[in-house]
Every structure is written in C-alpha cells, then in structure tokens.
UniProtKB/TrEMBL annotation:
The lineage of its organism: Bacteria, Bacillati, Actinomycetota, Actinomycetes, Micromonosporales. Residues 10-60 form the DUF397 domain. InterPro entries: DUF397. Residues 1-23 are annotated as: Disordered. This is DUF397 domain-containing protein. It comes from Actinocatenispora sera. It comes from the Bacteria.
Length: 67
C-alpha cells in the first residue's frame, strides 16, 4: 500500500476529448500516479504505484476492458 504521496505541486492533465463534462484528471509524481475527479479538485485522490498504472494502461490499450 502506498503512503500518502504529495500531489500539491503536480501537473494535472485530462484527455483532449474530455471537454468540460464528467472526466478524471491524472498526475504523476516520482512515487505514484494520482487520479481525481475534475469536478472536485479538492476531493480525494486515488494513488497507484507507477507499475500498477502502466499495467492498467497496457490492458486498456489491448482492449481488456472493452464492453
């Protein structure tokens, strides 16, 4: 389990096709990748180990989660 990484100075970004609607933002610091709700920027951040995030992205690209 990760300790609480500091995302206070992280650069948050979201996908170019997300528009102004319901989306998430992602930021990376050396020890973790954070994901948050773009409508609640002061709310909770889900933190993932970089290796876990890379594995997730690989599965997304391979279509593992396609419905």
């Amino acid at each position: 389990m990760l300790s609480s990484p500091d995302f206070s100075s992280a650069r948050w970004r979201k996908g170019p096709g997300s528009g102004d609607g319901n989306c998430v933002e992602v930021a990376q610091v050396p020890e973790a990748v954070g994901v948050r709700d773009s409508k609640d920027r002061q709310g909770p951040v889900l933190a993932f180990a970089p290796a876990a995030w890379e594995s997730f992205l690989g599965d997304v690209q391979c279509g593992t989660f396609d419905l």
